[in-house]
Write a structure and sequence with these properties.
7 helices; 38% helix
């Protein structure tokens, strides 16, 4: 039996999301193909990176049978006030669920006002699981806030994908700092937070971490040396 090749981490902005970002007057927003975010310098997006046809061709060339697209959490959409981010989340889901083969989709959700019913709806429409920003799952308070979403995933047996979230604003930092330092640190924290606050409560929930979790798994031996039992959970 041939095992399908799945890429669990791709970003492709479907047309409805691009239009919604261009309609905004504050971050996150697109002006042409220039992306403006709070906490990062303006970024020139390459339009070809979001060409559905081109990305499908690349997936075929790489032998990928299923490419799971997620909303890039550094955009900050999930962390916006719920009323402000709702239209962007709707645009993302409408667009990504309409993508052709070989694309699949991760759901996205507000962490300002977590709505398990909305998550249930997009999972039922075809999303394979939920992506959340690492910044939302960095401590006990974050797990308490996101509990309704995590409980829904656990109930239906769908996985969680943890992705870097928005970078903290630092005007003195070089342009590469958010991607190379902030994102990595977020993932490192989120991996340990999962083992401390998530896994004990939801031991059956499947979780994947982007960016090798900031290499946090390599430090399990150090964690044990500091008096913490070996990491548990999946």
């Amino acid at each position: 039996m041939t095992v399908p090749r799945v890429d669990v981490h791709q970003h492709v902005w479907p047309a409805p999301l691009v239009a919604a970002l261009r309609a905004r007057t504050r971050a996150p927003r697109l002006v042409g193909w220039t992306l403006y975010l709070d906490g990062e310098p303006p970024y020139e997006v390459r339009p070809e990176d979001h060409s559905i046809a081109r990305r499908a061709e690349l997936a075929a060339q790489d032998g990928i049978d299923l490419a799971l697209v997620s909303l890039s959490s550094p955009l900050g959409i999930e962390t916006l006030p719920a009323a402000d981010g709702a239209g962007l989340l709707d645009a993302y889901h409408d667009g990504v669920l309409a993508l052709p083969h070989p694309f699949g989709a991760w759901a996205a959700a507000s962490v300002d006002d977590p709505d398990p019913a909305a998550l249930r709806e997009v999972l039922g429409a075809g999303c394979v699981g939920l992506q959340l920003p690492a910044t939302a799952l960095a401590d006990a308070d974050g797990y308490a806030r996101c509990a309704p979403l995590l409980d829904e995933l656990d109930r239906v047996g769908a996985p969680l994908f943890v992705h870097p979230g928005p970078a903290a604003a630092d005007p003195s930092a070089p342009p590469w700092w958010p991607a190379m330092v902030s994102y990595v640190a977020q993932m490192h924290i989120a991996w340990f937070a999962w083992h401390e606050y998530g896994a004990p409560r939801l031991p059956g929930l499947r979780v994947g971490f982007a960016m090798l979790a900031g290499l946090a798994p390599l430090h399990a031996d150090r964690m044990a040396a500091r008096g913490r039992p070996a990491a548990s959970g999946r």
